[in-house]
Amino acid sequence: MFLQRHITGLSQKMLTQTLRELERNGLVKRTVYAEVPPRVEYELTPLGQTMQEPIAAILSWSRQNLTALIDAQERYDGQTGAGTPAAN
Questions:
Q1: Residue 81 above 80 pLDDT?
Q2: Which of 9, 22, 33, 68 pairs as cysteine with 28 (C-beta 3.0–4.6 A)?
Q3: CB of 38 within 8 A of CB of 32?
Q4: Confidence (pLDDT) at 8
Q5: Beta-bridge partners for 30
Q6: Model confidence band, residue 9 (pLDDT cutoffs 50, 70, 90)
Q7: pLDDT attached to residue 75
Q8: What is the spatial distance between Cα 53 and Cα 67, in angstroms, rounded to a whole number?
Q9: CB under 8 Å to 86, separation ≥6 — which residues?
Q10: CA distances (Å), 68 to each of 14, 81, 84, in order?
């Protein structure tokens, strides 16, 4: 599966659950082809396409602030000890 090959650590179960939720929410359309082996394709619906611009903006912000984000993570990890969450 294309997505699973391109996203490190993505399990088939998690991919399936996520795609089902996106379909349930009307963001993707699932098409099943009666072939051997069976083939399934997903595409964004018009509603799903409206998310492209906001997601692109978040991606752009993340890229612009990557160094600051990594620095913050390292400071946090240094205070709490090797990436473990701080105790409440």
A1: no
A2: 22
A3: yes
A4: 78
A5: 42
A6: confident
A7: 95
A8: 23
A9: 76, 79, 80
A10: 30, 19, 20
Mean pLDDT over 24-28 rounds to 98
> Domains, the chain, ranges and CATH?
1-45 (1.10.10.10), 51-88 (no CATH)
CB 39 within 8 A of CB 55: no
pLDDT over threshold 60, residue 87: no
Q: Cα separation of 35 and 48, whole Å?
A: 27
Three-class SS state of 86: coil
What is the helix (H) or strand (E) element at residue 31, kind and residue range?
A: strand 28-33
Distances (CA, A) of 81 to 21, 70, 76, 84, 86: 36, 16, 8, 6, 8
